[in-house]
Specification:
By secondary structure, the protein is α/β, with parallel strands linked by helices. It has two domains: 62 residues, SH3 type barrels; 271 residues, TIM Barrel, CATH 3.20.20.70. The chain contains 16 helices and 16 strands. The strands form three sheets. Strands 1, 7, 8, 9, 10, 11, 13, 15 and 16 form a nine-stranded mixed beta sheet that branches. The protein has a five-stranded antiparallel beta sheet with strand order 4-3-2-5-6. It is globular, with a radius of gyration of 21 Å. The model has no long low-confidence stretch (mean pLDDT 91). Bound molecules: 5'-deoxyadenosine (5AD). The site of 5'-deoxyadenosine has 12 residues, from loops.
């Protein structure tokens, strides 16, 4: 479901009103709402008012979603200005991206503000709420960073049954109003292709939603079958675009084909007509800014629909337990630079970023170029067991769910417009 920045009614003419939001003034139809007057706060889809809300609630959403446009660019370098200009034509070199990732002080703030403006310009005032259901924490792989790696014997493993998964997803759609459902698990072959197909079909039979599968390296055939069953998107990170680092972090006995294999599979999946979400982990031990710049360029090259990236968080029971976590500021700069280079992508504030800074990450991410959120709908009894990393943030905001435009069919129509290629 979508959440939008509220606007204030500044003029009314019959069934139409002029709505002023932080990104400008636009005309909307107010036919669905009774007794609208000048000064009221409205939530609207692109051109239709969907809900009237209290000024206090409007302030709360504004505080969360609308960044401040920084116009004071006195203390920024000529080079920085040139880079922002190049970004406007959607083109940045690796060196320019590295410059952005190194920005500090005023330049960093201007980078965030610029990314926010590019986001609003391309995606209007909407942010999308995705529901993620982590249905199994069994994993055949042994990735060095991940708490679910098969050699981590301290993990209490669980699998949700097909009916449990379907029930959670259907409730997320039909009771709460989500329209984007992410089904995630470790690399767990106990779920056969046919089982995954059954899950997708059963959810689609009862719920009007988009389904994103996040089940790792499965066969091309499996991805084809899931697509035919109704899956729309795939969440599958390449983790790092540096092949050497990839090989160090993913021991050969599991992910045999290395980075090339993963990228080839991602391309194959894209060709099948899936919406692709992919990206790196930020701040992996041994990762350089050059690598991160390559990661951003890789997301662009793959033409990801969603650029999904989050900071590394060391996890006990893994070989990287003693390493430092990824940097929050660097994560925000990576989001902002990605926004400049891939203006129309969805960029979520990932759970890992919220875990490192539970108080501010959501707001800062949404004001630095990100435009969507992942809410965890894994049933409470399993949640703590899906420990990719420790102290995982489990924010799910009832207020945001309430404010979202899920009741209007407009929300669905908007998404359908965005996703028409992937249905
Ligand atoms: N820190 C941050 N992200 C992690 N992931 C796995 N382990 C970690 C960690 N320790 C990410 C990977 C994976 C996604 C499901 O979670 O990018 O693809």
């Amino acid at each position: 479901m979508c959440l939008t920045i509220p606007g204030k009614v500044i003029e009314i003419k019959d069934q139409n009103a002029l709505l002023k939001t932080s990104s400008g003034v636009r005309q909307i139809n107010i036919g669905l709402i009774s007794r609208v007057k000048v000064g009221d706060w409205l939530l609207a889809s692109i051109d239709l008012a969907v809900k009237k809300i209290k000024a206090k609630d409007a302030e709360e959403i504004l505080e969360l979603l609308s960044g401040k446009k920084i116009t004071d660019t006195n203390n920024v370098s000529f080079k920085f200005r040139e880079i922002l200009k190049n970004a406007q034509i959607g083109d940045l070199t690796k060196e320019e991206i590295i410059y952005l990732l190194k920005t500090e002080g005023q330049e960093k703030e201007v980078l965030f503000s610029e990314a926010d403006a590019v986001c609003k310009e391309n995606l209007k005032d909407f942010i999308c709420l995705h529901a993620i259901v982590e249905f199994s924490n069994y994993c055949a792989n042994n990735c060095f960073y991940c708490g679910l790696r098969s050699e981590n014997k301290t993990v209490v493993r669980y699998r949700m049954s097909i009916s449990e998964i379907v029930k959670v997803a259907n409730e997320a759609v039909n009771k709460i109003g989500y329209k984007m459902i992410v089904l995630q698990s470790g690399a767990d072959m106990q779920y056969t292709d046919e089982m995954l197909v059954e899950i997708i079909k059963k959810i689609k039979a009862k719920s009007r939603c988009f389904i994103f599968m996040s089940v790792g390296e499965r066969s091309v055939q499996c991805y084809k079958k899931m697509k035919k069953a109704g899956a729309n998107g795939v969440l599958f990170r390449f983790e790092t675009s540096n092949p050497k680092l990839y090989n160090i972090l993913h021991p050969k006995n599991t992910l045999k084909g290395g980075l090339q294999n993963r990228l080839a599979l991602l391309r194959e999946i894209k060709k099948m007509g899936y919406y692709i979400s992919s990206g790196p982990i930020i701040g992996l031990p041994g990762q350089t800014l050059e690598d991160l710049a390559d990661d951003i360029l890789m997301m662009k090259k793959l033409s990801v629909g969603m650029a999904s990236m989050g900071p590394f968080i060391p996890c006990d029971g893994t070989p990287l337990a003693g390493e430092s976590h990824g940097d929050v500021e660097l994560s925000l700069k990576t989001i902002a630079a990605s926004r400049l280079l891939i203006p129309k992508a969805r960029i979520p504030v990932t759970t890992a970023l919220e875990t490192l800074d539970p108080q501010n990450a959501r707001k800062r991410g949404l004001q630095s170029g990100a435009n969507s959120l992942m809410f965890n709908l894994t049933p409470a009894k399993y949640r703590s067991k899906y420990k990719i990393y420790p102290n995982k943030f489990h924010g799910r905001d009832k207020d945001l769910e309430d404010f979202a435009l899920y009741k209007g069919k407009e929300s669905w129509e908007m998404l359908t417009r965005e996703f028409k290629k992937y249905i």
